[in-house]
Fold E3 UBIQUITIN-PROTEIN LIGASE CCNB1IP1-like protein.
Amino acid sequence: MFFIGQRELEMQYKMNRIVAQCRQKCESMQEKFTEKLEQLHTAYQKMAKRCQMMEQEIESLSKDKQELQEKFSEKARQKRKLDEMYDQLRREYESNKRSAIQPANNFFSRNDPDLFSNPAATMMDNRDPIRK
């Protein structure tokens, strides 16, 4: 009996030691888990802040993009208008250039007497009546 009781006590002692070691390992693992969980939570908070900042930056960039598109549209309208004005001025210039090259008889449509066809007759006819 004594031998069996001693064996039981040894077994209980060994079991208690194993249970204590398991508890110690579990507590150690729980501490590490808590530490890792805190690190994860801190990293999550940092990422949340970065995401918030990036969302704000995206919003700002979207506003800038919209403003630039509006400015581009306005500049494109101004360019089209200037192109139209340039084309009109170019047509007017070409028209004026063509009309300047044409003969001068289009500008003065009066009939001038030909002084060289019969010079004596025309000179006599054109004299002042007072001189006659």
